Amino acid sequence: MPVFDLTATPLREFNQALHDVKSGANDTAFEVVNPRGHHSVAVGIDAPVVVDVRGSVGYYCAGMNDGGTVTVHGSAGPGVAENMMSGTVVIEGDASQYAGATGRGGLLVIKGNAASRCGISMKGIDIVVHGSIGHMSAFMAQSGNLVVLGDAGEALGDSLYEARLFVRGSVKSLGADCIEKEMRPEHIEVLSGLLEKAGVTDVKPEEFKRYGSARKLYTFNIDNADAY
Amino acid sequence: MSYHNPPTPPRKSATFDDATMAEIRRAAATGIYDIRGGGTKRKVPHFDDLLFLGASISRYPLEGYRERCETSVTLGTRFAKKPIHLKIPITIAGMSFGALSGNAKEALGRGATLAGTSTTTGDGGMTDEERGHSQSLVYQYLPSRYGMNPKDLRRADAIEVVVGQGAKPGGGGMLLGQKISPRVAKMRNLPEGIDQRSACRHPDWTGPDDLEIKINELREITDWEKPIYVKVGGARPYYDTALAVKSGADVVVLDGMQGGTAATQDVFIENVGMPTLACIRPAVQALQDLGMHREVQLIVSGGIRSGADVAKALALGADAVAIGTAALVAIGDNDPKWEEEYRKLGSTAGAYDDWHEGKDPAGITTQDPELAQRLDPVLAGRRLANYLKVMTLEAQTIARACGKNHLHNLEPEDLCALTMEAAAMAQVPLAGTSWYPGKGSF
């Protein structure tokens, strides 16, 4: 398995090696040591590679991942797995702002906490946060599922579209047009599957509350002006 | 003696003119601000207020039609492995599939390709038709990230990070429900028929330090092949240009307030941002102060209509221009042949700006299949190519008259200004003088 030491090898070489993996290749596992907060580690993956990053990373780790499995054995800076298309990204530690922003698919698992704007503008990605999330999370979230085992900060799901939010702990406040919704059997089923995929074994889906869009801001209405 | 008040002609208020009062009545009746397409309609200092001096005894002209005047431009020479080479310095500005019909987007791609220039996607992603018909396609990276994906990022010829646009610096987009057709909804991952809001700020970066990291990420994803543009609205051109350069841009796109939009509040279009003319010199100054003029290319847009406008923008220091509204007019927008239908919509050819309603008789700013099929993309593409070629010939004509064998050799000293305002904004002398406001500290 190729090992890239980012104190000795330029990041460009590592990302290029990931992009050079051909479909059907046998050698698809990579290890990164000494990431030391580098930005843009393992971005633009477009093959089913497996990347283990031994340490913490800066901005945009695994950005636009399409099919890779990236595990950060540390914490991640802002925008981890932004615009992910498919694949899996696991952060063993905490994640900074905008985790999973605009993600279109795949699964992002954060085993610690996530800061503000987690899942902002998400468009189909599934995000499971073992800890808590910060303010303005799921802002303008369009689709996908955000699962939070801990608490959510202020203005959760502001201006939400069709994304589903599941929070086990407290929610400091809901954003404009975000409301608590009934947890129906199909939601329990989706949630069970996500918890299982995220390696959560000691928590039941029934412990969560579901939040979604009231759909009152879907068309302009002057009587909703206070919410705009 | 009784006072006799002689009759006087009715006099309307300049402050409360017909348009102002009509807007007050409209607001009172509907309870919502006016939304429309296009750029500012107010008169602002513009390229019309500048003139070229031409050759004289102190400099000689080039022979029209005999001596070459080059028009090519290369964009993205700073970092990109694959810069874009264009035959002419007039590009097509970003306009979305969604705001425009598929046929209109195809026509823009065809016309740009025939003329040897680039076209640009918009808020909503890249369509196969657009990619297929565009030799050089710039892929916009917008706050909404609608339709954004790495596959399209890699098949683009350049990436344009959109921070703002001239019609609404600081504002996001909107696409009203009438235009959220099933295909548009699918591309944007939205429910059909809703009024779509686009964010005004990028979701995963805020200031220039973050932008530098974001640009680096985009370069890593695309293996440093693509030129990366940064587009800003005409707000603080000196600092925005300097910060874009600092952030690693290959190209700065600067859009003045005459630049169009698919749909924005009229109050925003008319009251936020600066005229294109006022933006160019500060941006060029920033590039020069950083030693980056011509290293980082500057594309200017907002109200470019003719080869004279192109030549004036280039003389003030731009490397290229972009056209949006003018390109739509070339392919048939606001054409008098649809006058009867414009009248039914309460407008008239030349004034129709309800692009957001999706009822465009010309079949351009619509998602209605019946209206869209009115636009023949092959013919419309040909019309755009013709127009681009005329603009180029016009710009060459002026450049030759000024003795230049490349459009980029035009200089501010080739210009004079007709008004004090234009002289101050363009920093070229008032006609017949050697002075402009601000020169010599007064």
From TrEMBL, chain A:
* InterPro entries found in the cross-reference section: Glu_synth_asu_C_sf (IPR036485), Glu_synth_lsu_3 (IPR012061)
GO MF annotation list: oxidoreductase activity
Please, which domain of life does this record's source organism belong to? Bacteria
What protein does this entry describe?
Protein GlxC
- Species lineage: Bacteria, Pseudomonadati, Pseudomonadota, Alphaproteobacteria, Hyphomicrobiales
From TrEMBL, chain B:
Q: Which residues form the Glutamate synthase domain?
A: 77-332, 356-404
Alphabetically list the UniProt keywords: Oxidoreductase
Question: What are its GO biological-process terms?
Answer: glutamate biosynthetic process
Task: Name the source's superkingdom.
Answer: Bacteria
Q: Which CDD domains match?
A: GltS_FMN
Any one GO MF annotation of this record:
glutamate synthase activity
The record's InterPro entries line, in alphabetical order, gives: Aldolase_TIM (IPR013785), GltB (IPR024188), GltB_archl_type (IPR043578), Glu_synthdom (IPR002932)
Which family, according to UniProt? Answer: Belongs to the glutamate synthase family.
Record protein name field? FMN-binding glutamate synthase family protein
Q: Which organism is this protein's natural source?
A: Tianweitania sediminis
